[in-house]
Amino acid sequence: AVISTTDFFMPIVDDPFTFGRIAATNAISDIYAMGGTPLMAIAIFGWPLDKLPPEVGQQVIEGGRSVCQEAGMMLAGGHSIDSPEPIFGLAVTGRVKIEHLKENSKAQVGDQIYLTKPLGIGILTTAQKQKKITNEDETRAIDTMCQLNDIGCKLATIDGINAITDVTGFGLGGHLSEVCLGSNVAAVIDYNKVPILPNIKDYLANGCSPGGAQRNFDSYGHNLSPMSSEVQSIICDPQTSGGLLIMVSDSAQAAFNEMMTEAGFNLEKIGEIIKLDNGKPLVQINVE
Predict the structure, then answer these.
(1) Residues 160-180: pLDDT tens digits?
(2) Is 206 left (phi over 0), alpha (psi -120 to 50) or beta?
(3) pLDDT tens, 113-140?
(4) Residue 125, H or E segment
(5) Domain that includes residue 79, residue range
(6) Under a CB-based contact definition with an 8 Å cutoff, are residues 21 and 66 in contact?
(7) How many domains does the chain have?
(8) Judging by DSSP bridges, how do beta strands 74-82 and 37-47 pair with one another?
(9) Cα atoms in the Cβ-side hemisphere of radius 13 Å centred on 155
(10) How far apart are the C-alpha atoms of 178 and 140, rounded to whole Å?
(11) If pLDDT is split at 50, 70 and 90, which confidence band does 288 have?
(12) Smallest Cα–Cα separation from 287: which of 230, 239, 245?
């Protein structure tokens, strides 16, 4: 099957080449989340010619091109416009065998839940905008955002990996809610097992929670169990180029563990898919 996706946004870092890399990595992610292999991308590019020189824009495109090469595909042209603010992203075409196509609506009761990247990107990019971030944490955030989710196309070959989605702008709480609603199930999350970037609590205490986290909670908070404001800020933190959220059946557990270990991941399950109970929250966050 041919699969297609697109994504673009305005800069979240100052360096143009890095912005291009992050935007491209983020745009390709949906292909991997479906279990696909990217084949070709075209650029979506807006640039304020009256404010910034075209040479800087070219660095953005080159950053995107470098990620396309890493993903094994061409950046085959695109379309550009004169825009009030810089924007960059990709429209990506990929392919996947029908029997390997992964959706976010096929989770089954008993599936174990895994997340391949730590949360906190929205908090760190907010700290960067407020000039409160350390160099070490900024580098860590960039490295995380530029990590391709290409393990998705390998996971697609394992029967019993029932659902995959990528965690992006709606945060863990939102994307897991989508999985549960689409699959007619519920989920329980062990918050203490959720991977979180270092120093996130310090940045939250310093006023670095992004506005998107509150908007996310306002949108789907009714699906979540009650939690502290700190936990809410992390569970609802909007991710840029976040990780894959993977639902793994018992029958696939051994093959999944072997593949992830070989790929250099050291994952702990963060929760489980459970039977839907209309008297209980769709997503239960256990902090104890």
Answers:
(1) 999 999 999 999 999 999 999
(2) alpha
(3) 999 999 999 999 999 999 999 999 999 9
(4) helix 121-129
(5) 2-99
(6) yes
(7) 2
(8) parallel
(9) 33
(10) 28
(11) confident
(12) 230
Q: Within a 10 A sphere around the Cβ of 14, how many other Cβ atoms?
A: 10
Contact 213, 171 (CB under 8 A): yes
- Put simply, whether the predicted model's pTM sits higher than 0.85 gets the answer yes
Bridge partners of residue 228, in order along the sequence? none
Q: Do residues 145 and 246 share a domain?
A: yes
CA angle 22, 16, 70 (to 5 degrees): 45
Q: What long-range pairs does 204-207 form, CB within 8 A, spacing at least 24?
A: 204/123, 204/230, 204/233, 204/234, 206/127, 206/132, 207/130
CA atoms of 6 and 252, how far apart (whole Å): 30
* pLDDT computed for residue 170 by the predictor: 98
Contact assessment for residue 17 and residue 63, using Cβ atoms and an 8 Å cutoff: yes
Query: What secondary structure does DSSP assign to 8-42, as a single string?
Result: EE--SSS-HHHHHHHHHHHHHHHHHHTT-EEEEEE
CB count in 10 Å sphere of residue 24: 32
**Domain final position from 66, 99, 132:** 99
Using alpha carbons, list the distances in angstroms from residue 72 to 22, 44, 128, 266: 16, 19, 31, 25
Amino acid sitting at position 74: M
CATH code for position 53: 3.30.1330.10
Written as one letter, the residue type at 150 is D
The CATH number given to whatever domain includes residue 246 is 3.90.650.10
